[in-house]
Amino acid sequence: MAAYIFSLVLGLFFSVLEVLYLGWDWKLLIFIPLTIAATVIAVFLVFIVTIWIISLFIDMEKKYDAPTKFYMELINFAFTYLLLILGVRVKLEGGEKVPTDKRFLVVSNHVHAFDPLFVILSLRNTWVSYVSKPENFKIPIIGRYMHRCLHLPIDRDNPRNALLTINEAADQISRGAVSMGIFPEGTRSKTGELGEFRNGAFKIAQKAKCPVVVAAIKNSRKAARRPFVTVTVKIAGVLPYGEIAEMRTAEISAKVREMILTA
Description:
There is one protein chain. This protein has helices at residues 2-22, 31-55, 69-86, 115-122, 142-148, 159-174, 203-208, 220-223, 241-244, 249-262, and strands at 88-93, 105-108, 128-132, 152-153, 179-182, 212-218, 229-239. The chain is α/β, with parallel strands linked by helices. It folds into 2 domains: 2-50, no CATH class; 87-262, 3-Layer(aba) Sandwich (Glycerol-3-phosphate (1)-acyltransferase), CATH 3.40.1130.10. It has a 7-stranded mixed sheet with strand order 1-7-6-2-5-3-4, with helices on both faces. α1 crosses α2 and α2 (31-55) packs antiparallel against α3 (69-86). The protein is globular, with a radius of gyration of 21 Å. The mean pLDDT is 87.
């Protein structure tokens, strides 16, 4: 919300200066929204340069034990501003179901590349980091912040390395560093239909002895095609650890899949 207010106020400020400098004319009305839009983009570019400079201080070889409020809030602000420019609004439904006294594993469907952003921003009152493909950590600026904010790369082609990541994700949850997010489908759906789940994703919750927050992301496919879309993150339900402790991961997977489909 701060990003929206800041951009609007600054854009209006420059619009007023424009009117004072050029004098009032009804023909100038068309320049007001253009000035606001240009201001939003200019501020975003300045912000990108700033976070790039800050990212240079992140040691990619160092293993961080916990995120900091500074980096988490900085990346949340950057995500919010990016979605503002793209005309995408994120709405949370069922947020009252999300645990506030413990960390958890959040799982959802996956259609858009920005799905992690949608979940992170909708659950910004708690810190959520994602298990993600290694290629994302090579993205300039973003990869460095992902590393600093405890996102984890997973090697899906190497079961042994994947297990190490699952264990590390469970450790981050159990020691209260962050909540973790993962897409059980393993990759984005090209059709928008919910794909088959990889059951191993749910080992994280069992190892961490934490609840599973099930979310259904809606309209993200539309956000990939056109601006001014509201993406809804609907919390379909929460599976407490006591309920999944003795279940096979295939059973948890089937239950979660049904919850997403019926949300």
